[in-house]
User: Which sequence fits this backbone?
């Protein structure tokens, strides 16, 4: 599904990714861990198409197509979803109106008619129940005054509505209490299928107790320096990152 | 001929032609002398520092269009709020069109200024209210000198007017250039309630200059909502002078939607003569090209325990320019005044300009007055967020602008007006927005 080869990227001439390789197949869950400043969020933003970064080398392919030149919305239409570490507040636009617009713009890009209002409402009801989201919450302005947990739950709600092929969860566990973490993880697990894939970016092993990864990668200094299965995350939790840094010396 | 000379030379003929009583004659003569002394405003005047009428005054305007120009409803229907039942006062090149209008004299009067100025039935109201709060400045004086036609609305005590009243001024372009000076008087007695929608619309690209004056009197407990839709052709300029007097417990709101036109100047003045008054001034301005809109507001707090709320949103693209000059005066007696003023602006281009100037003159010591002015760009992070969810850049920007303007739009009480404004904005931003705000 996603194939990244020798990806090198910089911001303001500062090199952040330095030859990153990653392959994610349909049906898989990958976790990317690593210390602060390793380039985890940069990787997520670059896959989603944020134009603050300059790609100097390498390719990003989604289902065999190079997406590195596509606009962020075109990548979204192709099935890329990024759950933001810090979801943006947009006063004046309600959650419901925003998600309706997002879905119908995606359908428009695919040459489809708007989703009938009845179907939309049904879907909103189902998915908000899945994430245990109160109906009143949906008429509030997007992310405005939301608690950290509400923002993250709202991200996963949108993911549930948009049904992406590739979901990247950028520190979705930060700011969540244990109940919210369980709800969010449960939502992600219910959405998982053999046709889609998930990349979980996290500092801590905690989330991976709930969303069990097939592969765990350690990102350090702009490169993936170690890969393994779920047990690697447990080892990292116990020993920290220093031993990996030392291994590299 | 210079416009000033033309106005001066046509005044006598005008006075002889319109049949008026002696009181009005005297008001006119004084106003005319006033204009003769003052002339048109120039940038040397502090109040006109950022708005020059020079280019507009150069046109050879026809002051009293002669050609009768019948227009069909089908041609102008789109300018009406037509999906609800309303009273309508329609003027074509400054003349009343009974064919397109729907006036009434049943329990209240929605009719013509020309009739009110001449018929004995209206004498008392005219004596009490006509030209009583209008300033004696140059352009208001000019309008007063030539005041003859416009809307006359009188709502007696305890009457709630259920249908909104639309005042529409069309210019047909039958003359190469047209100058219009509509004069409106709106008197809303105790505990009465009325909603008014106002629009000026030129039907061709021939130059138009409108110098309008509206006086509004809201008695005790009255509620008045006024919506001004300014979305005219780019050769049409407008000076809108509005004067509003409020008595105790009255609520008056004025929403000004400025999307079109060449040069638009709004002089919006509120005088609070009573206690527990609420004055609401809101505006959305979206400009492009070389359009220019100047909002000059004044709220004069004269007595204690009153409020005023100002909320102006502006979006400026290309070389457009905006001015917001909000003056709040709180007299010594006006303790416990709450006066709020906000002017938020987004510049979409490096060439666009906004001049924002709050002016607070506070002589009382126990008051809450705030003013806030912001000038910024659209939030790139918010735009990326929306694009990530599949909303294309253009639509995303439009959605952000809608959201930005929404605090003003959401206080519009007539749903059809709200929808219409949303539609005009969507058109202006060149998007088909698939949601309602």
Assistant:
């Amino acid at each position: 599904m996603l194939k990244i080869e020798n990806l090198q990227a910089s911001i303001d001439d500062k090199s952040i990714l330095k030859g990153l390789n990653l392959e994610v197949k349909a049906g898989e869950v990958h976790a990317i861990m690593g210390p602060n400043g390793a380039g985890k969020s940069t990787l997520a933003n670059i896959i989603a198409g944020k134009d603050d970064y300059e790609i100097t080398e390498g390719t990003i392919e989604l289902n065999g197509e190079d997406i590195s030149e596509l606009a962020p919305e075109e990548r979204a239409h192709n099935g890329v979803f990024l759950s933001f570490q810090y979801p943006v507040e947009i006063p004046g636009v309600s959650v419901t109106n925003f998600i309706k617009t997002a879905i119908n713009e995606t359908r428009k890009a695919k040459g489809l008619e708007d989703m009938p209002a009845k179907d939309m409402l049904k879907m909103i009801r189902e998915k908000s129940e899945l994430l245990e989201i109160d109906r009143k919450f949906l008429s509030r302005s997007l992310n405005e005054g939301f608690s950290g947990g509400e923002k993250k739950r709202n991200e996963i709600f949108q993911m549930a509505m948009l049904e992406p092929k590739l979901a990247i969860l950028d520190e979705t566990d930060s700011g969540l209490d244990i109940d919210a973490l369980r709800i969010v993880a449960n939502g992600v697990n219910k959405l998982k299928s053999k046709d889609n894939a998930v990349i979980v970016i996290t500092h801590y092993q905690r989330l991976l107790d709930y969303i069990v990864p097939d592969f765990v990668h350690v990102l350090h200094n702009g490169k993936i320096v170690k890969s393994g299965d779920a047990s690697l995350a447990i080892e990292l939790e116990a020993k920290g990152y220093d031993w990996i840094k030392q291994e590299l010396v | 001929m210079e416009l000033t000379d033309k106005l001066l030379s046509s005044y006598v003929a005008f006075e002889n032609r319109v049949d008026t009583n002696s009181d009005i004659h005297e008001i006119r003569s004084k106003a005319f002398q006033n204009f003769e002394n003052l002339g048109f405003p120039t940038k040397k005047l502090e109040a006109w520092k950022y708005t020059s009428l020079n280019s507009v005054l150069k046109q050879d305007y026809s002051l009293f269009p002669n050609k009768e120009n019948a227009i069909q409803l089908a041609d102008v229907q789109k300018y009406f709020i037509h999906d609800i039942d309303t009273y309508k006062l329609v003027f074509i090149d400054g003349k009343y069109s009974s064919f397109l209008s729907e006036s009434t004299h049943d329990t209240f009067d929605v009719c013509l200024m020309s009739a009110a100025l001449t018929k004995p039935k209206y004498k008392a109201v005219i004596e009490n209210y006509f030209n009583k709060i209008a300033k004696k400045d140059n352009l208001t004086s000019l309008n007063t000198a030539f005041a003859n036609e416009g809307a006359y609305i009188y709502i007696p005590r305890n009457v709630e007017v259920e249908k909104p009243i639309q005042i529409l001024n069309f210019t047909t372009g039958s003359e190469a250039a047209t100058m219009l000076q509509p004069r409106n008087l709106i008197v809303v007695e105790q505990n009465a309630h009325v909603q008014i929608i106002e629009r000026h619309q030129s039907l061709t690209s021939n130059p138009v200059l409108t110098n309008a004056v509206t006086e509004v009197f809201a008695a005790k407990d009255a509620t008045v909502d006024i919506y001004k839709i300014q979305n005219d052709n780019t050769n049409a300029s407008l000076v809108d002078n509005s004067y509003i007097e409020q008595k105790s417990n009255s609520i008056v709101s004025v929403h000004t939607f400025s999307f079109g036109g060449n040069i638009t100047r709004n002089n919006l003045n509120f005088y609070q003569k009573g206690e527990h008054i609420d004055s609401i001034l809101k505006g959305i301005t979206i400009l492009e090209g070389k359009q220019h809109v100047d909002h000059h507001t004044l709220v004069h707090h004269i007595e204690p325990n009153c409020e005023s709320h100002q909320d102006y949103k502006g979006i400026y693209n290309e070389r457009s320019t905006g001015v917001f000059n909000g003056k709040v005066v709180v007299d010594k007696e006006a303790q416990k005044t709450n006066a709020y003023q906000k002017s938020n602006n987004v510049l979409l281009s490096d060439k666009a300009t906004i001049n924002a100037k709050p002016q607070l003159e506070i002589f009382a010591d126990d008051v809450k007055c705030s003013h806030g002015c912001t000038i910024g760009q659209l939030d790139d992070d918010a735009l990326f967020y929306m694009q990530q969810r599949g909303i294309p850049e253009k639509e995303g920007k439009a959605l952000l602008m809608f959201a930005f303007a929404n605090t003003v739009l959401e206080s519009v009480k007539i749903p059809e007006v709200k929808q219409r404004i949303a539609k005009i904005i969507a058109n202006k931003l060149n998007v088909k927005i698939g949601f309602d705000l």
Q: What stands out?
A: The mean pLDDT of chain A is 92. Chain A touches chain B through 34 residues (CB under 8 Å).
